[in-house]
Amino acid sequence: MSARASRTLLIFAREPNPETAKTRxxxxxxxxxxxxLYRAMLRDxxxxxxxxxxxxxxxxxSPEETPTLLGGIFAGHDLAPQRGADLGSRMASAFEDxxxxxxxxxxxxxxxxAPLLRSQAIGEAxxxxxxxxxxxxxxxxxxxxxxxxxxxxxxxxxxxFRGMRWSETDVFAQTIHRIETLxxxxxxxxxxxxxxxxxxxxxxxxxxxxxxxxxxDLAGQPTPAHTLAALRSLR
Length: 235
Description:
With 235 residues, the protein is α/β, with parallel strands linked by helices. It has one domain: Spore Coat Polysaccharide Biosynthesis Protein SpsA, Chain A. The chain has 8 helices and 7 strands; from the N terminus they run βαβαβαβαββααβαα. The chain has a 7-stranded mixed sheet with strand order 3-2-1-4-6-5-7, with helices on both faces. Strand 1, helix 1 and strand 2 form a beta-alpha-beta unit. The radius of gyration is 17 Å and the shape is globular.
């Protein structure tokens, strides 16, 4: 069996503070409560990252903030400020920097608001990248929770992110359209789609997550423990 490619995991996150933490949850939680929930989610993401089988882990923090708490939560990770005027530019730059650091790496990027995206799902993405150029984990809100690209496809990454309408509810569909366009020009290019996951952005998402985690806990199955504990303390 041939050796697998090296692996880099990128994590996009913001410093948890009452002004910026999960502001769409304001109808349900006040500022300190939102910080408590987001911090718990960050701790679960950090645990999933440490459990993931990879050579390099990079916490990409929002440059408008100082990563005081993030640095502690993601101890052992490389820290790098996000670069770019919008989310697409920042994602493209993060991939470009990762490929510049290791031209042979398969790179996966995740956010910090999908606590059910565990190390197994990240590992499945890297498994697909051994044979596919680009992988995506769609989210229920029309976006995606994970995106990955293998080293041989590093040149297509900027085209997937830059100029995207990120405020729309069809980001996943837009991305698939771009991939279709790239495949038409480059027939050897391949993509892989992983099972859907969901972000925690709205009160409805929190209610769904509470029910989901309660069911997993009742069944004796693994849960994002910090998030579960935070929800129980807040509710």
